[in-house]
Design goal:
The structure is a single chain. The protein is an all-alpha fold. The protein contains 14 helices and no strands. Helices cover about 75% and strands about 0% of the residues. The N terminus is likely disordered.
Amino acid sequence: MSHLEPRSILRPRASREDGRVLFIELFFDLVFVFAVTQLSHSLLHHFTIAGLVETAFLFLAVWWVWIYTTWVTNWLDPQATSVRLLLFVLMFAGLLLSISIPHAFGESGLLFAGAYAFMQVGRSVFMCCVLRGRHERNYRNFLRITTWLSVSGALWILGGCVEHEARYAVWGAALLIEYVSPAFGFWTPGLGKSTTADWDVAGGHIAERCGLFMIIAFGESLLVTGATVAELPWTLVNGTAFVTVFAGTIAMWWIYFNAGAEYASKRIEESDDPGRLARLAYTYLHLPLVAAVILVAVADENVLQHPLGHASGLGAFAILGGPALYLLGNLLFKRAVFGRIAVSRIVAMAVLGGVAFGYGMLSPLVLSMIATAALAAVGAWESWLIHRGAIERC
């Protein structure tokens, strides 16, 4: 392959402009718009403890295959023909993966596992071919990654061939291998382990890509809201519920994008070890943020459908727990990037936790109003601090 590809297959690092997100990457993300929709709709249709666990599990897999591809396009130039072809192939496999999500723990298990393993292993093998002779440290890094993903891939396929509890166990082991391997530097016999210094990343690109995935999640929340409201009669109660859940989505967007995302992008660009920040803050700590937005989308549908009904335990968990998880994720993200604790998030989470004790006395609409107010208060407080030039206290 090295005789066929120009050296420009590697993304240049000469300027910040070289790390910009390209249209082909946005095109690739459309598959994951569908994946997020499949996840939220699956949870809506099976809103039980088992459904929550299965959706969370599948979300971890979807996020992992997306973030690994994001790292790859951080190193490779998506304008190179072979890289575009790689992304097109991954898109096709991603569509198969997304199609199989609703029945991944049933009859579509092998399809989900096969598509997932193909994307993970195939992309890593491609990287080994491309990096050999061009970037020795990263080439060895991807040899290690391919080894780990081959082991987990075999478990994914095996899990797709068994049923019920056995599938949970085998897939759980596969996912555990993939999530812990970066922490061990992908240590491999004969190859040693990687360090974050080996991961020469363009921090701004990673930050922007994760921000765009947040937009995908927010978009799903708005789609659920719009589709649900369109089927409801226009009444004062329904209108109030609509305004409440929409304001909640705006508040979550505000908390992430008002200043934090931009400052975090600058911080990772200026970091002496951008690979470490990219691994911790963007690869791992965006998980609770995206998961929370999906959970809030499910909660919003419940609020819109039954604003004055009785909030079940799971319903209250979604309405209050989604925003609390979002605030926790944002708190950890800020701690990792800026090295400080955002006290406003802790106060808001405490309020939501206190309300949870009395959820049975409150309707879904009232619970949603409280959750939205807590999110809005955090956003307003941070905006006030920024206005006063006290961003370091946000």
